[in-house]
Each structure stands twice: as C-alpha cells, then as structure tokens.
Amino acid sequence: MIVGYIDDHKQEYGVEPIWRVLTAHGCKIAPSTYYDVCARRRQPCKRQLGFGRNCAISAPSAASGAT
Fold it and tell me: Which of 31, 11, 33, 35 has its CA nearest to residue 20?
C-alpha cells in the first residue's frame, strides 16, 4: 500500500521527500524495501517465471480434444 502511494506520487515529489514526510507522520518504510518491491516488479524471480511456464505446459489445450 505504501509502495503504491510512493509510485503514484514519485514523479511529482520524488521518492526521498515522500519518505521523509511519511516517516515524520509515523508511517515508516525502509528505502531498501521500496526498491526491492520495484525490482521484483521489473524482474520476477525464477520460481514465478517457472510456475507460469509449467502451468501452460501441463494444462490441456482445446485443440488436443481433451475435455
């Protein structure tokens, strides 16, 4: 939720000023937490990538005649 708020407003205010204001109001988030979430959005882990691939491979297709 906090990460989404920062993302929504970072273009207008910047990330660091938002952190300062949030921290001053008792809503703390570590910079590393924010950047970790952003990195996971850009590049999902291998497990997440493999899960989608395996599901697509194991699911029966309509073309194969499976019902």
Answer: 31
The Cα 16–Cα 63 span in angstroms is 53
Q: Which amino acid is at 9?
A: H
CA Rg value for the chain: 19
Q: Quick one: which of 13, 39, 41, 42 has its CA closest to 22?
A: 13
Instruction: List, for residues 11-33, the tens digit of each pLDDT value.
Output: 999 988 998 999 999 988 888 88
Distances (CA, A) of 21 to 12, 41, 65: 14, 25, 59
